[in-house]
């Protein structure tokens, strides 16, 4: 029987041999653990699929043990990753292959398939990360590496724009800037806001005011959070004019800069968490960018800020004031700390109990203190007074004369 540690090593070996990056290996590990808990002899409840990867009868080597099962899974995934409809997001490719392999693309699956499957296969990240760390260790080289196992629950998929970007020197990236969309007051496109904004950005191509962001994000009415990757972060998006070359830009779709704090928390709490996580990820990718939050009253780069930072602090020619005065910077800052270190926000130390002054007073009067020769404080003073010849000082007990 192959142990879990051995299965973990098999997955890492296959991933490295095929040129997978570490996060892609994590996706495979988490998926297969969700499918079988890495058990090479387990059947599904209908006795149809079998083994580590829960393979059906079309897998001719599914009874040949964990190594054959893992290899066959990677063989098929490699095919799906090369298909014309493949995504740059390995999670979407896995979901497409596992759930609806006959559909035209990973993106089509995302738009029409059972999205809960993504949540299911990502739910084992915390379980499998220690195995990944053990058999594919990494050091952060002094930079912050996101704590993968505490990734917030959000769906991210790439749907890159066909323009509205340009090449840049990534070594200059030192800012991560947040924006509001500013839709008409009273509009409510919460459920598909991120995708709708992405499509609007595409429509500005070739027009008089082409615009783009690297990410658009929104939280639906049911609390589900979606992030659309619109521009590769290695390229400059067209978001902040003269500061495009140095910044990564995230827009909260469907938001307004005149929102109250409560509106932000009610409508975008999940997106704020996702934004913080992506910021920390990008800090690991770009050496000059650091996981610092440059909240108003602002300070010098590097770090995360908003569009108003360009207007007021950099004075680079921008005139926007989003994300507005009521954005919950404290919530964003706590999330950045959590995803950068893997720790939960600090728990406040409970206040010390108030002193019991009545008890302390009686203790002073009645306790026979060893440092006073087993005398009460009052009797010790009386002894001193008597030895000094002061009238009226009359100790009692063993010191009485």
How would you sum up this structure, described in words?
The protein is of the alpha/beta class and 401 residues long. The chain has 3 domains: 4-135; 148-341, Peptidoglycan recognition protein-like (Lysozyme-like); 357-399, no CATH class. 40% of the residues lie in helices and 8% in strands. The protein has helices at 4-17, 22-36, 66-82, 90-99, 106-112, 116-122, 125-135, 193-203, 261-285, 307-314, 329-341, 357-366, 377-387, and strands spanning 155-158, 165-166, 175-180, 215-219, 225-229, 236-237, 247-252, 303-306. Helix 1 (4-17) packs parallel to helix 3, helix 1 packs across helix 7 and helix 3 (66-82) crosses helix 4 (90-99). It is flat, with a radius of gyration of 31 Å.
By CATH, the superfamily of the largest domain comes out as: Peptidoglycan recognition protein-like
Q: How would you classify the helix and strand content by structural class?
A: alpha/beta
Name of the level-1 CATH class of the largest domain: Alpha Beta
Continuous helix count = 13
Portion of residues in helices?
A: 25-40%
Features:
single chain; 401 residues; alpha/beta; Lysozyme-like; 3 domains; 6-stranded mixed β-sheet; two-stranded antiparallel sheet; 13 helices; flat
Q: Could you give the topology of this structure?
A:
Blueprint: H1 4-17, H2 22-36, H3 66-82, H4 90-99, H5 106-112, H6 116-122, H7 125-135, E1 155-158, E2 165-166, E3 175-180, H8 193-203, E4 215-219, E5 225-229, E6 236-237, E7 247-252, H9 261-285, E8 303-306, H10 307-314, H11 329-341, H12 357-366, H13 377-387
Parallel strand pairs: 1-5, 3-7, 3-8, 4-7
Antiparallel strand pairs: 2-6, 4-5
Helix pairs in contact: 1-2, 1-3, 1-7, 2-7, 3-4, 4-5, 4-6, 9-11
